[in-house]
Design a protein that fits this description.
The complex is a heterodimer of chains A (260) and B (303).
Chain A: E1 11-22, E2 28-34, E3 46-50, E4 56-60, E5 63-65, E6 70-75, H1 80-85, E7 92-99, E8 109-115, H2 119-131, E9 135-141, H3 151-155, E10 161-166, E11 172-173, H4 176-181, E12 192-196, H5 199-208, E13 215-218, E14 234-235, E15 240-241, H6 242-245, E16 248-250, H7 251-258
Parallel strand pairs in A: 8-9, 8-12, 9-10, 10-11, 12-13
Antiparallel strand pairs in A: 1-2, 1-7, 2-6, 3-4, 3-7, 5-6, 13-16, 14-15
Chain B: E1 7-9, E2 12-14, E3 18-20, H1 29-37, E4 43-44, E5 61-64, E6 67-70, H2 82-91, E7 96-100, H3 105-118, E8 122-126, H4 143-156, E9 161-165, H5 171-181, E10 185-188, E11 192-194, E12 211-214, H6 219-233, E13 237-240, H7 246-255, E14 257-262, H8 265-269, H9 273-288
Parallel strand pairs in B: 3-14, 4-7, 7-8, 8-9, 9-10, 10-13, 13-14
Antiparallel strand pairs in B: 1-2, 5-6, 6-12, 11-12
Classes of the chains: A alpha/beta (260), B alpha/beta (303).
Bound molecules: flavin mononucleotide (FMN) and FE2/S2 (inorganic) cluster.
């Protein structure tokens, strides 16, 4: 079975934010109407969100509704621009996208590993594979339980099994890597493993997983143009551009960068 | 007989007439390797300035149906990176042009002096960036200013100098001034000043306000510019502006270009664009019975 493998050309859209909801101590969900248009994307494509008077910041598309007429972002405010963004309910913003390439291997059992704001691209994979009726296990980790908050409620819309990890008060005490290390889930029972989160977490998982051809990692680098022109997002040591070749990579393609 | 795509620029043989346009990657050794892997016959660096520049805050590029508008603000690591860039190109066996941009002829001399230490194959003078106050069209505002810059650099340079200009009503006099000072080659054209406004937010989209338009929208303007300068001055020319297919490249060559640079096409068509264009040019040459690029240059002028 195949679904339409279709996504828009990178373009500029105006969006109107119609819902902002604080999910946890650190994460917000932001729902955006793409005005009089559709921004059709496939995971793990991302957008540049232009906050008027501030900067344009790269954001994963976490959920796509109404065939691209509505998108959901999961935002962790860290700087001036993202802190402003989470106050802009009912305001207009600019959106440039979709950026990057889809990376959608086929498999029946999918394991998604997310740390912190890495939950955003993992949600989009969950939504995609759920639409194909695949079996999805979703691990979501953070340091403290108040960073987990209501996020699992959104994840459960798509994933059959949800496991949370943190230092205290989650399903498992520990980190996302510990879930693999201590056998709570077994990597080899899945057709593909997807990972997104802080680079240190990605490195730990890269060092741990056995099958680097069946592991997909979502990388982060400084994105300025988002279109493969300025070179700011180059994954040094390779000749790959995050915004053009990524942001998802098969681990075997960049393993030298991650395993040290 | 075999078809050859070799072309000669400033007396130097290039394996094919395609190069990247300045500002498209080309400011780090990894990026030079990436450009080399695409199959270009020559690489052009990002325009380098005396000191590193951060450039403008994003958004710095807006994609449009007909091209791009950019205001990157000449972000670059500074001229000293030139050593590593030339080294990376040498290691990959590909010729390289260092693009330099100064605010005054004095800065240009300083930049060219440093650039020559690195021994690139060519030096491209950016006389035409439209969105960075003090640089580009600001530094090269008049025919006199262009003369001043090109003559100063040429007087000390032992490496061929390319003068990169933008479209203007004085295009032919500007090109003439650059050639009379000793520029070997004219590069035509840079982006054209442009702006896009969001109708709901009601402000310009780029953080800088205005920027430069590139891509298919400017291609016919670029072809016209090449045609005019070739017709009036019989100059050696590198065409740039909206080249995305073999037809666009051949148009430039028939108008008088000896080589063609590609910028925006790399993102609109993808990194395979060079191989696709080379394939298309070969089929075209086979079809019309041409054996070399040389025999096609400027033939649109012959009645
Ligand atoms: C993102 C971007 C950055 C650019 N930076 C430079 C630059 O540093 N120096 C320069 O001479 N031209 C620069 N240009 C202009 C290009 O070299 C080229 O002249 C112009 O884009 C037209 O070619 P195209 O339509 O193939 O892109 C830049 C263009 C773009 C799109
Ligand atoms: S952000 Fe400019 S090349 Fe990727």
């Amino acid at each position: 079975m195949s679904i339409a493998y279709r996504y828009s050309k990178p373009s500029y859209f105006t969006g109107k934010i119609y819902n902002i909801n604080r999910l946890s101590r650190t994460l917000y969900e932001i729902d955006i109407n793409i005005i009089q248009d559709k921004l059709i994307s496939l995971p793990p494509q991302f957008v540049l969100v232009c906050v008027p008077g501030y900067e344009a910041v790269p954001m994963s598309i976490a959920v796509q509704e109404e065939n691209g007429g509505v998108i959901k972002l999961i935002v962790k405010p860290v700087g001036e621009t993202t802190n402003k963004l989470v106050t802009l309910n009912n305001e207009y913003i600019g959106i440039i996208g979709p950026l990057g390439k889809p990376l959608l291997p086929s498999g029946d059992k999918i394991l998604l590993l997310a740390g912190g704001s890495g939950v955003a691209p993992m949600l989009r994979f969950a939504q995609y594979y759920a639409s194909l009726k695949k079996d999805i296990t979703f691990v979501f980790g953070a340091w403290e339980s108040d960073e987990i908050g209501d996020v699992p409620g959104i994840i459960r819309r798509y994933a059959s099994e949800v496991i949370t990890t943190c230092t205290n008060g989650c399903d498992i005490r520990g980190t996302v890597v510990d879930v693999l290390k201590y056998g709570y889930v077994r990597e080899d029972e899945y057709d593909y493993v997807f990972v997104a989160g802080p680079e240190i977490m990605i490195r730990n998982i890269a060092n741990y997983v056995k099958n680097q051809y069946k592991t997909i990692v979502i990388m982060e680098r400084l994105v300025r143009c988002g279109l493969g022109l300025c070179g700011s997002c180059i994954i040094s040591g390779t000749n790959k551009l995050l915004c053009y070749d990524g942001p998802g990579f098969v681990l075997s393609d960049i393993v030298e960068v991650l395993r040290q | 007989m075999d078809i050859t795509l070799e072309t000669i620029i400033s007396g130097k043989k290039l394996s094919n007439p395609l190069m990247n346009a300045s500002g498209i990657l080309g400011d780090a050794p990894d990026a030079i390797r990436l450009l080399n892997s695409m199959g270009f016959g020559c690489i052009v660096t990002k325009t380098l300035t005396l000191r590193p520049r951060e450039g403008y805050r994003p958004p710095i590029i807006v994609p449009l149906d007909y091209g791009l508008i950019n205001a990157v603000g000449l972000a670059n690591p500074g001229i000293r990176i030139g050593a590593e860039l030339v080294f990376a190109a040498r290691n990959n066996g590909i010729p390289i042009a260092l693009s330099i941009g100064g605010k005054t002829s004095k800065e240009f001399i300083e930049l060219a002096t440093i650039a020559m230490e690195y021994d690139p194959d060519f030096i491209e003078l950016n006389l035409s960036c439209p969105h960075t106050p003090g640089y580009g069209i600001d530094a090269a505002k008049t025919v006199k200013a262009i003369k001043d810059i090109v003559c100063s650099v040429a007087s000390i340079a032992s490496i061929p100098i390319w003068a990169k200009l933008s479209f203007s009503r004085n295009l032919v006099s500007e090109a003439e001034a650059a050639l009379s000072c000793g520029a070997s080659t004219i590069v035509l054209i840079n982006t054209i000043p442009a702006m896009v406004i969001d109708p709901y937010i009601k402000t310009p989209i780029l953080s800088h306000g205005w920027g430069g338009l590139s891509g298919p929208a400017i291609h016919p303007i670029a072809v016209y510019s090449v045609y005019r300068v070739y017709e009036e001055l019989n100059a050696e020319i590198i065409g740039v502006g909206g080249a995305e297919t073999w037809r666009d490249v051949i148009e430039f060559i028939l108008a008088g270009a000896s080589a063609v640079q590609i910028g925006t096409g790399l993102i609109r068509k993808g990194h395979n664009i060079v191989r696709e264009i080379i394939h298309g040019i070969k089929s075209y040459m086979r079809e019309i019975g041409a054996k070399s690029i040389h025999e096609l240059i400027g033939i649109a002028h012959k009645k």
